[in-house]
Amino acid sequence: MLKKIIEHLKNGGVVTYPTETAYALGCDVANQKAVDLVFELKKRAKSKTLPLIAGSLAMVKKFCQMSADEERLAKKYWPGALTIVFKIKKGIKLAKGTVAKDGTVAVRVSSNKTARELSLALGAPIVSTSANLAGEGECYSVDDAKKSFFDSVVFLDVGRLKKQKPSTIVKIENSKIKILRQGEIKIC
User: Helices then strands (H, E): number in the chain?
Assistant: First the structure.
């Protein structure tokens, strides 16, 4: 099953998959056609970038610059519902809509084993945005996601997820943690 989903992603497809906070709508972060489709399906403003899920800390280091402070924070809370904003490494090409104008990306290593395996099998981070239409509630099951998306999405069903808050999003500036969104993880 995973092999078919990876082939679907590499061919520009979109998948609904589980994370620790909810089901996500995702695609290959390097495929512009697929990223554009996620924006279209979500009815998401192009001014907002799409967050990513990576399979491991090593994968994040391959794609992103990571300060010692950022690495300590990542090691403390990953895998988990903490999204960290990093500068992208020079020479890394990701689809427009995933990298902010300042050259940063929002990434986490999910505590959901299926989400990590999906990213590791693809060999790259995957887009991760809630699997629902803008303005609707979170999706904690594939049935929830199917209310919004049909033929254009492949569904990776692992059953009903426990209801959770979204991930906490942080950025480290001058060795200080700036909380951009307070979610599941409380940073002290």
Answer: 6, 10
Which of 52, 59, 41 lies closest to 104 in space, CA to CA?
52
Q: How many Å apart are CA 103 and CA 20, to the nearest integer?
A: 27
Are 97 and 39 in contact, with CB atoms under 8 Å apart?
yes
CA dihedral 155, 46, 29, 69 (to 10 degrees): -110
SS3 185: coil
Domains of the chain, first to last: 2-181 (3.90.870.10)
Q: 129 is written with which tokens?
A: 């945005």
The set of residues, in sequence order, having a beta carbon less than 8 Å from that of 17 and lying 6+ positions away, is: 23, 24, 26, 114, 115, 118, 126, 156
C-alpha distance across the termini of the chain, in Å: 40
pLDDT tens by residue, the chain, 188 residues: 788 899 999 999 999 888 988 888 899 999 999 999 999 888 888 889 999 999 999 999 999 999 999 999 999 999 999 999 999 999 999 999 999 999 999 999 999 999 999 999 999 999 988 866 656 677 777 877 777 766 667 776 777 778 778 889 999 999 999 999 898 888 86
What pTM was estimated for this model as a whole?
0.89
Q: Identify whether the C-beta of residue 49 lies closer than 8 Å to the C-beta of residue 99.
A: yes
Q: What six digits make up the tokens of 15?
A: 């998948």
